Amino acid sequence: MKPQQIAPVESSTETHKQDAPSVSLFITLLILYSVVCFSIETIPDLSAGMRRFLWYSEVCVVGIFTIEYLWRIYTAENRLKFIFSFYGIVDFLAIFPFYIAPAVDLRTLRILRLLRLTRLLKLARYNSALLRFSKAIALAKEELLIFTVGSMVMLYLAAVGVYHFEHQAQPEVFRSIFDCLWWAVATLTTVGYGDIYPITTGGRMFTFVVLMLGLGLVAVPTGIVSSALSAIRQEQESKGSGKR
């Protein structure tokens, strides 16, 4: 029986030619510089000179990203497809807050400032390891979707279970299923904040079961993604050996 061939995972960046290493490095450093400036802006009592420097830095960064975005649209084989692709949307969101800020009252739309952090997603285009990871996620998306749905069901059942055991003993703590969901999240993820915990024998036994399930819950997606990464790496190595 012949081994099953792995179908190549298409990337939305394939609509463009491969960027030169120097350009990729420059954009990567620019993204990191932008994020550092964003963080510095949150420091209280900055001097007027520093705020002015950060403003001009933002203007320069946005200008370069805007040129890059327009260039990618111009050189794309299918421009509409690129605009609505993952990377096209990320590129747009990376510059959108700067242009929309003067037109709106950011006192009520300060969340737009956080969109600047989408520039970090641009790193996936310029880093081969991140590109392999994104391909692995795409390869295992069906398994991850099933796992996510199963996790949500397990989370709800855990909340219902602890509500059954603890509601009468701690009505002020486990008041409703929604309160119990917080306990279920902290327990299934094995974080265990300790701010809400069972005191009955049945509740503690149930918690033990949920904790054991939580250990597996953490391990399953790791195995799925690791297997997909291994498949992507083998595919790339086979392509590389075939070109020799």
From TrEMBL:
InterPro entries: Ion_trans_dom, VG_K_chnl, Volt_channel_dom_sf. GO terms for biological process: action potential. GO terms for cellular component: voltage-gated potassium channel complex. It is found in: Membrane. Residues 22-236 form the Ion transport domain. GO terms for molecular function: voltage-gated potassium channel activity. Keywords: Ion channel, Ion transport, Membrane, Potassium, Potassium channel, Potassium transport, Transmembrane, Transmembrane helix, Transport, Voltage-gated channel. The chain crosses the membrane at residues 20-41, 53-71, 83-102, 146-165, 177-199, 205-229. It is a multi-pass membrane protein. PANTHER family: POTASSIUM VOLTAGE-GATED CHANNEL PROTEIN SHAB, VOLTAGE-GATED POTASSIUM CHANNEL. This is Ion transport domain.
